[in-house]
Design goal:
The chain is α+β, with helices and mostly antiparallel strands and 356 residues long. It contains 10 helices and 10 strands. A 6-stranded mixed beta sheet has the order 1-5-6-4-2-3, with helices on one face. It has a two-stranded antiparallel sheet with strand order 7-8. The two termini are 29 Å apart.
Length: 356
């Protein structure tokens, strides 16, 4: 259950609709075809999730894992769209020959480890929820998603996107949508939706940094590095360090994310620009984390986690609501006037979000 308003899972993808829309209009069918099929499939899955949620058709909760160990299961969809597919790897089994299966399994474990070791959270729901993932979903599927119950990965089209299990932060990003689902349950539209996306980018990046043992200064702060094919002029899907700089490509267009409120995009598309305006809170986290230095999950990450799970964050929270709660959390955990309080306050000021 969530702390605000009940259990309401949503369908969340890592590749924004505006990217797929751009690809779908390309004259080359090798590029437009997979993008169009992905958009259609995403629309079908989004509708299914809405019906399941509204009419309480979700399955009964599965058996729980031991509190300090993950319970992972990886399935193979065999390039079809039926979920979950054929079971190919269970918890504790040895790696097989399929690198995609092995990466998915490892990414589920890395996400579990970060939440447990850094924040004493037992899996996505805080109560040992088993972690399921399906790989090789559909044909040339250009996305990865959390559907309220499990992770699903496409193989990409090979022209623009590669295998979606390659970046570990994509796995962490999608699973963090589950954490948000079970805690603050941020509405997936407008500023609360952008906060929802930002929480997934923040913790997706922290999972990557934790796995690599990186400090905030050593991290690349990219989301989806390694996902774009070599022919694409870009380095990732998003950059928390420099929103708007992740790609600039003849086919994909230019990364539209703003770094500050001066560039805030007002649109009815993409659920009110949730994947675009998330660049603003993303950049605030980057600024706070790098100002504090060290391992970003220890102080900046702890503050963000405290707000996400603390019960005060409204489902419809705006950027300034969230900012105010992070300042409050910094004060309560680390003391008024300390460097954490100063770093968080200054970060929001730098991105133009006024603290109420």
């Amino acid at each position: 259950m969530t702390t605000n308003g009940g259990f309401q899972p949503v369908f969340c993808t890592v590749v924004p609709p505006h990217v797929l829309d751009k690809l779908a209009r390309n004259e080359d069918p090798a590029l437009s075809g997979p993008a169009r099929r992905t958009l259609v499939r995403d629309s079908e899955l989004r509708g299914k999730r809405r019906v399941t949620t509204e009419f309480s058709l979700a399955p009964a909760p599965p058996a729980k894992a031991p509190s300090d160990q993950p319970l992972r299961t990886v399935y193979d969809a065999g390039h079809r769209s039926d979920l979950p597919g054929t079971k190919v790897r269970a918890e504790g089994s040895e790696p097989g020959r399929d690198a995609t299966v092995n990466r998915a399994y490892a990414g589920l474990g890395a996400t579990f480890d970060l939440y447990l070791r850094a924040y004493a959270r037992h899996s996505i729901d805080g109560d040992g929820l088993p972690l399921d993932a399906t790989v090789h979903f559909d044909e040339g599927y250009n996305n990865a998603f959390w559907n309220g119950e499990q992770m699903v990965f496409g193989d990409g089209d090979g022209e623009i996107f590669l295998d979606f299990t390659i970046p570990i932060d994509v796995i962490g990003h999608e699973l963090t949508h589950g954490v948000t689902q079970y805690t603050a349950n941020l509405t997936y539209y407008g500023q609360p939706g952008a906060l929802n996306e930002s929480m997934s980018d923040v913790f997706g990046s922290l999972i990557k940094q934790y796995t690599l043992g990186q400090t905030a200064a050593e991290a690349d702060w990219l989301i989806g590095a390694g996902l774009l094919a070599p022919s694409v002029s870009g380095k990732a899907l998003r950059s928390m360090k420099e929103p708007g700089s992740a790609y600039d490509d003849d086919v994909l267009g230019k990364d539209p994310q703003p770094a500050t409120m001066d560039g805030y995009v007002r649109t009815g598309r993409d659920n009110g620009g949730v994947h675009i305006n998330s660049g603003i809170p993303n950049h605030a986290f980057y600024l706070a984390a790098t100002a504090l230095g060290g391992h970003a999950w220890e102080r900046a990450g702890q503050i963000w986690y405290d707000v996400l799970t603390g019960g005060e964050l409204s489902e419809r929270a705006l950027f300034n609501d969230f900012a105010g709660l992070t300042v409050k959390a910094a004060r309560e955990r680390f003391g008024d006037g300390g460097e954490e309080f100063q770093a968080v306050s200054k970060a929001w000021e730098q991105v133009g979000v006024r603290i109420l």
